[in-house]
């Protein structure tokens, strides 16, 4: 049984997220349907990151097994044909070792969050970034963000829906770049808690607005979600890259 690894790009605006659900269209469900149409086989498509509703992907990775051995360019082009007109694109396909699992084999996951800091509303970037209208203290946000790096108990930065048994996570990098009105956050870790990146970004934005007096270090140590900031909207979040 060949094990196919695919790299996927998608606009998550109109979907319930990656994971197959009964309450709407999911990225996973649509790709599984495309696999069935192309191959006449029913396959479980396993994703490296379970992106939430409205979250996008530049470099999502998934894998699935088939009975037939089909050329990888046929897999890529055939799936793209059956995924139209959905904004989901199979960027590449390859056959990998039978033991490869896109989720459990991952060593690092990279997420990117985009903010546009301006007074005017978004048009072209609508649903692709978070428009923050109040001027942000970028330098303060940059300084505070360094406290996220390392191993921490991140109780204050997970949603009430998080089912993870442990809140201990190791953030390997947390970078912020500003280019005119665009602020980009790039975060990497082996795994994340539910809504963790969005809460970290929302907290830094509230600090940048002057709404929070406590430092990131103090909020982490408190382990209290109530002391952290808002949850940033899903529209600005992208699953950027998976390292194996």
Describe this structure in words.
This protein has 244 residues and is an alpha+beta fold. The protein contains five helices and ten strands. It has helices at residues 27-39, 72-83, 138-145, 196-209, 216-222; strands at 3-10, 46-47, 56-65, 88-96, 108-117, 130-132, 150-153, 168-179, 182-189, 237-243. Strands 1, 2, 3, 4, 5, 6, 7, 8, 9 and 10 form a ten-stranded mixed sheet that branches. A hairpin with a 2-residue loop joins β8 and β9 (182-189). The protein is globular and about 60 Å long. It starts with a strand and ends with a strand.
Q: Estimate the global geometry from the Cα principal axes.
A: globular
Q: For this structure, what is the CATH class of the largest domain? A: Alpha Beta
* Separation, N- and C-terminal Cα atoms: 21 Å
Q: Which structural class do the helices and strands define?
A: alpha+beta
- What is the string of SSEs from the N terminus onward? EHEEHEEEHEEEHHE
Give the CATH topology of the largest domain.
Answer: Alpha-Beta Plaits
The strand count comes to 10
CATH superfamily of the largest domain: Pseudouridine synthase I, catalytic domain, C-terminal subdomain
Descriptive labels:
single chain; 244 residues; alpha+beta; Alpha-Beta Plaits; 2 domains; 10-stranded mixed β-sheet; 10 strands; 30% strand
């Amino acid at each position: 049984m060949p094990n196919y690894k695919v790299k996927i790009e998608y606009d998550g605006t109109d979907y319930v997220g990656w994971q197959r659900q009964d309450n709407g269209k999911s990225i996973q469900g649509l790709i599984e349907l495309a696999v069935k149409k192309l191959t006449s086989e029913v396959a479980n498509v396993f994703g490296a990151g379970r992106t939430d509703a409205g979250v996008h992907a530049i470099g999502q990775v998934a894998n699935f097994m088939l009975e037939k051995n089909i050329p990888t360019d046929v897999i890529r082009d055939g799936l793209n044909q059956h995924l139209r007109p959905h904004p989901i694109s199979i960027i590449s396909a390859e056959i990998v070792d039978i033991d490869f699992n896109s989720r459990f084999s991952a060593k690092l996951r990279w997420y990117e969050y985009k903010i546009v800091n301006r007074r005017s509303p978004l048009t072209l970037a609508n649903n692709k970034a978070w428009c923050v209208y109040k001027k942000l203290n970028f330098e303060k946000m940059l300084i505070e963000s360094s406290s996220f790096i390392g191993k921490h108990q991140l109780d204050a930065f997970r949603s009430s829906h998080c089912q993870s048994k442990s809140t201990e996570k190791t953030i390997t990098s947390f970078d912020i770049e500003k280019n005119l009105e665009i602020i980009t956050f790039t975060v990497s870790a082996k795994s994340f808690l539910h809504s963790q990146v969005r809460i970290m970004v929302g907290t830094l934005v509230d600090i940048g607005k002057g709404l929070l007096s406590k430092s990131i270090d103090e909020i982490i140590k408190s382990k209290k979600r109530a002391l952290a900031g808002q949850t940033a909207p899903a529209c600005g979040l992208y699953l950027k890259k998976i390292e194996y």
